[in-house]
Amino acid sequence: MIKSNSEEWKNGSAKSITFIVTKDCQLACKYCYLVGKNAKERMSWSVAKQAIDYILDNKRDFHEESVIWEFIGGEPCLEIDLIDKICDYLKVEMFLRRHSWFDSYRFSFSTNGINYHEKKVQQFIEKNLKHLSIGITIDGTEMKHDLNRVYKITKKGSYKDVVCNIPLWLKQFPGGSTKVTISSPDLPYIKESVLHLYSLGIHEVNINCVFEDVWQNGDDRIFEEQLLQLADEIIDNNYYQNYVCSFFSENLGKPLDCLQQNHNWCGAGMMLAIDAAGDFYPCTRFAQYSLRNKKAIKVGNIRDGIDRNKLRPFLTLDRCTQSVQECIDCEVAEGCAWCQGENYDAAATSTIYQRATSICKMHKARVRANNYYWNKLYRKLELQGENSLKIKM
Q1: What's the pLDDT score for residue 260?
Q2: Which pLDDT score, from 0 to 100, does residue 2 have?
Q3: Count of domains observed in the chain
Q4: Residue 393 has pLDDT above 60, yes or no
Q5: What is the pLDDT of the chain when averaged over all its residues?
Q6: How far apart are CA 230 and CA 238, in angstroms?
Q7: pLDDT at 391
Q8: Pick from 67, 61, 58, 75: nearest CA to 20
Q9: Do 177 and 202 touch, CB atoms closer than 8 A?
């Protein structure tokens, strides 16, 4: 069994700093949480430079030994010229300042893959490959992908414009993993989509269900059945030897102890996001274009710096302070994820301490299928071991 290729860089200890370089995108994905995408809000070089200077000047607030400079949209490749300029400036400034982050950094972004082959994007990749991580989002088969990932103007599916760039991407990033999103309409296509991505040469498929309240009665049963079928395919055809699917994990579906395992799921508050206006957020999900119902939560800006009082509530977040008792006592709590921004947006009040539970039944369905997967796999491995022993004897 192979391990995931996408282990967190520096074991997750690196500071994550995100530039929201644009709120524009060629696509209008039906499950996208970015409800305020537009072509007007684009980061200027002046704002980007001020943000970088502030961050590099204030080591007290950014004391981690390593850093991930992340770029997000919309679609970040639409602003590849700006990203290139930012990265050049970062490399020079970290060197000139003898900053501890010099040679302990990564540039990272996820792209819809449409512009991946273009000359400017390829020049950027060639120049920064040693310190670069890029993921292309492809949802599976053409049918599943095109159900949701459609062009905003023509409403046509984008699969054919993405899949043609996968071979080039895998050549440059051989261990590249893709991120697949599951929503209610595309549940019946999970099994065939994961197998299709394997057939494209993608060895690691990371999948998650949307956190928003979109799930219908019976979706958990469809979900579980698809995962059971996928488990059979992976085990019966020995895909587990060379491929990974994040829906199946040994660390899933056990009780959690609030005294020993009481950490927040995500890094909201430990990260920093910067938008085109130069405002700071604890995560991109707290910027206004990510919120349906609530006002953005800002924790500072490039002129005044970070407001520690506004940041402090995020630093106290943990599992038990935001979960209802049913979640705390849940016998399959381990691996049940949440999004801090969705918690805030879906809460009855303007609190960040009310956990959204729309994904509960989907998590439980995943746990049941996960138990089936590992029981079947270990029975197979045990039998193979017995047969191997008999042959040796």
Answers
A1: 83
A2: 56
A3: 2
A4: no
A5: 94
A6: 12
A7: 35
A8: 75
A9: yes
HEC string of 306-321 equals ECHHHHHHHHCCCHHH
Residues making up the chain, counted from first to last: 393
pLDDT tens digits, one per residue of 312-335? 999 999 999 999 999 999 999 999
Amino acid found at 38:
N
Question: Is residue 271 within 8 Å of 283, Cβ to Cβ?
Answer: yes
Return the closest-CA partner of residue 145 out of 35, 27, 49.
27
Which domain-ending residue is among 278, 297, 316?
316
Helix, strand, or coil (residue 229): helix
Distance between alpha carbon 239 and the CA centroid of its chain, in Å? 24
User: Cis ω on the peptide bond leading into residue 74 (within 30° of 0)?
Assistant: yes
Please give the Cα distance from 108 to 10 (Å, whole number).
Answer: 14
User: Which domain, by its residues, includes 375?
Assistant: 174-264+319-383
Same domain, 180 and 95: no
- DSSP state, residue 42: B
Asked if residue 146 is part of any domain, the answer here is no
Eight-state DSSP code of residue 150: B
**226-232 CB contacts, 8 Å cutoff, 24+ apart:** 226/187, 226/188, 226/189, 226/190, 226/191, 227/190, 227/191, 227/365, 227/366, 227/369, 227/370, 227/373, 228/369, 228/372, 229/191, 230/190, 230/191, 230/194, 230/195, 231/369, 231/372, 231/373, 231/376, 232/376
pLDDT of residue 392: 33
Q: Is the pLDDT of residue 28 over 60?
A: yes
By CB atoms closer than 10 A (0-12, 13-18, 19+), residue 170 is middle
Going along the chain, which residue ranges are E strands? 15-20, 67-72, 105-111, 132-136, 177-182, 204-209, 244-245, 272-274, 279-281, 300-301, 305-306
Predicted confidence band of residue 12 (pLDDT cuts 50, 70, 90): confident
Distance (Å) of CA 99 to CA 51, 102, 143, 150, 388 = 16, 6, 48, 43, 55
Is the C-alpha dihedral spanning 181, 185, 191, 197 positive or negative?
negative
22 has a pLDDT exceeding 50: yes
pLDDT in tens, 44-66: 999 999 999 999 999 989 999 99
